[in-house]
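This section describes the prediction task in plain terms. A model, or a person checking by hand, is given the sequence of a single protein chain and must write out its three-dimensional structure as a string of tokens. No templates, partner chains or ligands are provided. The sample shown here is typical of the held-out split.
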Amino acid sequence: MYVCLCHGVSDKKIKRLALEEGITDIRGIKKCTALGSQCGKCVKMAKEILQETGVIQYQKAS
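The expected answer:
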């Protein structure tokens, strides 16, 4: 699903950056993508995705 419609950033891209690159905050995602640089409506959803991905990482570790 697209999280940032303005720049075409998907939930898969955010999850991939979190899991493969270790980026776990919005500031890091913004450095790699254009997320939130136009209308900003996507930032809240991106934060939720990062939180969910953190849970996924925790479950994989245990």
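For orientation: The two ends are 28 Å apart (CA to CA).
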